[in-house]
Design a protein that fits this description.
Elements: H1 9-31, H2 39-62, H3 77-107, H4 115-142, H5 163-185, H6 189-220
Length: about 230
């Protein structure tokens, strides 16, 4: 096994944020009276869900980050990151397929387009998973898993403070709350507004975190920062 481990979770965090940002955009487009096709959103969800589901499943089943020394946060990433990624990635993939098929049936005149009836059963599943995200956020803060590793170029700037632990805690809990609101956001105006705020805000936080890792993981691996070792 390579010293640096498998670090594709760089893109996984970015994909989580993109999915969350796309959901309110999809709802807004589907509710508009112009009658434009929504299959583009469906295919976007298929791609993003497939990527997140496959990588999350691999992380869940293989513990790809456990061998990295001095990075306590990575030792349980298969649980705290891999499992939710697999769960919501596969759910997003199925939702994308359902959207595409529902529009195809409507275009063929076989049945009217009813996205509420199509997606609400999947959103009930997402809502139950939201409780797990909230518990992950609380557990990670309680057991110290959200502390930044000292060898990561960007995160280590916050070493010794509670800024990153509280930020990651808020991201998990906020995403979980958004999932809990999702089944009711389609028909309840107040729940819909709260859902939109939570998905936009925490989706942007996931995107920001993912983008910082595109720099940080390059400096993090394959050797500790500022201690380069030449390889043949």
């Amino acid at each position: 096994m390579l010293l640096q481990g498998i670090t594709y979770n760089t893109t996984m965090g970015l994909v989580v944020g993109i999915i969350m940002i796309l959901i309110p955009l999809f709802v807004r487009s589907a509710a508009a009276p112009h009658g434009r096709p929504i299959s583009g959103f469906g295919w976007a969800f298929v791609f993003l869900g497939a990527f997140l589901g496959v990588t999350g499943m691999h992380m869940t089943l293989t513990w790809p980050l456990e061998q990295i020394e001095d990075t306590f946060c990575c030792a349980v990433d298969n649980v705290t990151f891999g499992e939710p990624a697999a769960f919501y990635g596969l759910l997003t993939l199925i939702a994308g397929i359902a959207i595409i098929r529902a529009e195809e049936k409507a275009d063929q005149g076989l049945r009217p387009l009813d996205l509420v009836a199509t997606l609400r059963p999947l959103l009930y599943v997402a809502a139950v998973g939201g409780f797990g995200l909230i518990m992950f956020g609380i557990a990670g803060l309680h057991f110290g898993q959200w502390r930044p590793p000292d060898v990561e170029p960007i995160a280590r700037l916050l070493s010794g403070s509670m800024i990153e632990p509280l930020t990651v805690f808020a991201m998990y809990v906020g995403t979980g709350i958004a999932a809990l609101l999702s089944p009711f956001a389609l028909t309840n105006r107040l729940a819909g507004r709260a859902f939109t705020v939570f998905t936009w805000f925490f989706g942007m936080m996931w995107i920001f975190l993912g983008l910082t890792l595109f720099y940080g993981h390059v400096g993090f691996f394959p050797y500790p920062f500022n201690e380069p070792v030449m390889h043949p």
